[in-house]
Amino acid sequence: MTMFIHVFADSLKYDEHGLIPAIVQDADTQQVLMMAWMNKEAVGRTLSSGETHFWSRSRQELWHKGGTSGNIQKVVEIRVDCDVDTLLIFVKPAGPACHTGETSCFYRTESEFIYRDTEWGKGIVEQFGEDHGHYSYGSENTSE
Q1: Residue 115: predicted pLDDT
Q2: Interval 60-115: pLDDT, tens
Q3: The three-state (H, E, C) secondary structure of the chain, written as one string
């Protein structure tokens, strides 16, 4: 690990589990692709390889984005937020970022999630119809 990588990785503010959130954004389209967690080793591997690496909290292991799918993400730039506790990584993706096959992991609005993916929301739509399957910001007139 070069001195630059070592100093950069050591200077970040990780949480109590040794992790830092990393938001990944397409460098060309500016679309937010995903959010994942990195530990110090993932930060170092990302910088040294030029491709994103993350820490899987569920599997408790490092993973190379696209290592099995081929949908790697070539790093263009890494930015650090003002508190030094979140990374924004601009990439050139080789394919979809989401394991579902969607370009971005953020492919659903809150209304789409609630009214299509939760039992409560499905019940509202079933009982009152599709016109009730949306949320109006700042409105007290919501179905409960």
Answers
A1: 74
A2: 999 999 999 999 999 999 999 999 999 999 999 999 999 999 999 999 887 778 77
A3: CCHHHHHHHHHCCCCCCCCEEEEEEECCCCCEEEEEEECHHHHHHHHHHCECEEEECCCCEEEECCCCCCCCEEEEEEEECCCCCCEEEEEEECCCCCCCCCCCCCCCCHHHHHHHHCHHHHHHHHHHCHHHCCCCCCCCCCCC
